[in-house]
Amino acid sequence: MRALTACLAAILLVAPATPARAADPTYPFRDPDLPVATRIDDLVARLTLDEKISLLHQHQPAIPRLGIGPFRTGTEALHGVAWLGEATVFPQAIGLATTWDPELMRQVGTAVGREARGFHAKDPAANGLNLWAPVVNLLRDPRWGRNEEGYSEDPYLTGALSTAYGKGLSGDHPTYLQAAPTLKHYLANNNEVSRETTSSMLPPRLLHDYEYAAFRPAIAAGAATGVMTSYNLVNGRPATVEPSLNTDVRRWTDRDLLVVSDAFAPGNLTGPQQYYATQAEANAAALKAGVDSFTQDGSSNGSTIAAVTAAVQQGLLTVSDVDRAVRHILSIRFRLGEFDPPSRNPYAAITPDVINSPAHQRLARKAADEQIVLLKNSAGTLPLSPSRTRKVAVVGPLADTLYTDWYSGTLPYAVTPRQGIQERVPGSTVVGGEGVDRIALRDLATGRYVTATGTTDANPVNVTGTAAGDAAQFDVFDWGQGLLTLRNAANGKVLGYNWGPFVTRDAQPNSWFVQQQFKLEQQPDGSYVIRYAGYETREPWFPAERYLTVDSAGNLALGAQTAATAARFAKETVSSGIDSAVAAATGADVAVVVVGSMPFINGRETNDRVSTALADGQSALIKAVRRANPNTVVVVENSYPTTLNWEQENVPAILWTTHAGQETGRAIAGALFGDTNPSGRLTQTWYRSDAELPSILDYDIAKTGMTYLYHRGTPLYPFGYGLSYTTFAYSSLRLDANSVTLDVTNTGRRAGAETVQLYTHQRKSRAVQPVKQLRGFARVDLAPGQTKTVRIPLKASDLAFWDVTRGRPVVESGAYDVLVGASATDIRRTATLTVKGETIPPRDLRRPTPAYTFDDYAGTTLVDTTKASGTAVAATAAGQWVKFADADLGSGVGAFTARVSASSPSTIQVRLGGPTGRLLGTLSVPATADRYTWTTASTPLRGAAGRQDVYLVFTAPAAVDSLTLS
């Protein structure tokens, strides 16, 4: 029978593509025994051009005549399946990363992939199996609003963890995918401010050794089936049309990749980016660059189909261009088993029963346990003894609440910190409170109180209360920089705006516009005005008014553009949060203060943080409780490094956890009482002050001294840091050609897990090298007194870096420090590795040299040479320069030739030794028609020979694409 099927298939391969009957089982594309490439060829040949184009949108329609169902890209699965209903919610991605546990990451990924299959079984058309996770953007700046979505500031760690998570999502079957992971967001996407129009500058070494190094591992390992392009520009070109998608990313694997755009990013090309005049040009360029699927206009595919169709009609695209993208899409659909009998695909049997299964709940608890980081523990403050802890005070704004983030799933249940502690010590007295002020706001014009009238959109908050009863009382949560949420005491809902009336409808701040945040601004006369601090946009439909007034019906309204015309209120404090927290803490055996962030307010998509400090009100609460009870433990629950200088100096013990999902409270209690031994390790540098941070738009970490790779200051907590309730000793470090081996001993009285970290430092190099660089790690579990031998792979080839002079990786000969320890600054054992590699020869500027391959620069930036490809150097002001180090000028050079562009006439000086060094000549740069028009200019040079550092110094704005000294 199989032979007959194969024979029929061979005949059909050359038969005309006639409709036949829908879902004809003899179609070769439905034969699972044929090679996938053959099946794709057959299906593509049967599709009309219109049908092919329809597949290029996120929401791919059904093709009934071929029995093909709809397909949708883009199920969110960052730390659990999101937006589809209740699902297991694991710790945020940054929390999963702090486990430094790839095997746990794989297990979590497997669970999330299974739940995606479960949701798919519920509704195959709506719940897709193309998952937009993990996020591998490097966390170079802690102010990034989406810090919780990433893993680490280090590319090696990010690559290892994303590979593990991706393998879990995709499954381990040799033929079929459990789900199809898509890496976000390619490329250099680490700021939200003006994210559609800012350009991330990536010199070649930063591009290859930092950014590519984060994305490549999962793709090369087959743990990712695609990437999503980012909103920003890279070296002047929108990432949506980034040519390296084809020239680099697809070369990292021999499997097809499905490249998707970020939501509405194709429209940005003609919108805020103004990169193309028409959408047909924009979509054609994106398709040619490597984008296969356009995420635009939600489920409406009309504009995408119209633009691509027009591009084909105008000759901007060929049918083969469309076919290429369709093949990439279909490749993933075939691997998901869509066109095969379900009996062939083991993942097709997964049912919705897996969603939030008991096994997944246990895994969520394990992940929440492992991600907790012990930041400080003086004099054995922790763990607490359950038998000796008869009264516990649990206070703070996060003591009684679990918060979720934008990409979180819906919590199926929630164990808060106070609940977790009470559950752990059921015989003890657990007291507490959120430590927030309860206030009433009285309108000075009428003497009436701001009052909640219900919890629906039909219940506007009005100013009619004659007394400050519960409905007129609000709990004030301080999230920093003056941002507050106001929760009504009567109904437990937060005050929010709803494009009309103000209401108390929501249990927590939420949604894209985050309309539940306010500022109370005190006026010179002592009164207060209420500033709405929700989403602000440049869109003309958004109200210009930002201050609250009272309308003719007595309801709160958004009616004033300035404080001068806003309603004035008296703020009456009903009860003091600090006073109640101090009362609870006084006399308690231990006071646990739970502070942190609200993920929809303290940085989110479209909103970076302006500070990494705790909110002033939270800091004041910690200080007051510490004065009242010396045995104070602080639990910081947020998603980013925080400046905890006072707390580090004055509080006996500090734990850090991310918003860790449904089991957060139990995990905190387990760590506090020693049921688990904290083993989390930081994946970012925690700086001491915001003053140490450069512009969030400066991506060159080597120039700015950012991340542990280049930071030379003393951090508050270093990369890789985390304490334990036991101690570990390192001994017997050995090196061989392929690995580093050492013995690790638990020298304490408790079982614990140590994360052994292997770093290297190159002592001498032609290029600027990191202070140290992570090359490997191993998490090892040890019983008290137990010793284990740890082996971490390390080969000479691992030490390669990008040589800008020759455009390829290089391993330099020389001595390398091998550093093994418990963090980037806690190095326990060292050794020297002598490597026989190569010596980078001097530059030969007598050959045409791309200008962007400079060795150093000041002020200049990188721009696109053309819209399709190429990178050039641009100066925006006089005095900016680029340096080409150690150039061999031979017996002498007499001319300088460059491919240049300028909006008005300019000059470029050629100097030796420095930007003010010996002047060899000055090149006159003529004005060109536009920035994409290039011309070649030359000038004679006064003689220079030998090995020299050559500087190009700009005297006015201009751009250089390439240069030659001849």
TrEMBL record:
Keyword Signal: yes
Secretion signal, residue range per the UniProt entry: 1-22
GO BP: arabinan catabolic process; xylan catabolic process
Molecular-function annotations in GO: alpha-L-arabinofuranosidase activity; beta-glucosidase activity; carbohydrate binding; xylan 1,4-beta-xylosidase activity
PANTHER family: BETA-D-XYLOSIDASE 5-RELATED, SUGAR HYDROLASE-RELATED
Family: Belongs to the glycosyl hydrolase 3 family.
Annotated function: Catalyzes the hydrolysis of a non-reducing terminal alpha-L-arabinopyranosidic linkage in ginsenoside Rb2 (alpha-L-arabinopyranosyl-(1->6)-alpha-D-glucopyranosyl) to release alpha-D-glucopyranosyl (Rd). It is not able to hydrolyze alpha-L-arabinofuranosyl-(1->6)-alpha-D-glucopyranosyl (Rc).
Protein name according to UniProt: Exo-alpha-(1->6)-L-arabinopyranosidase
Native source organism of the sequence: Phytohabitans rumicis
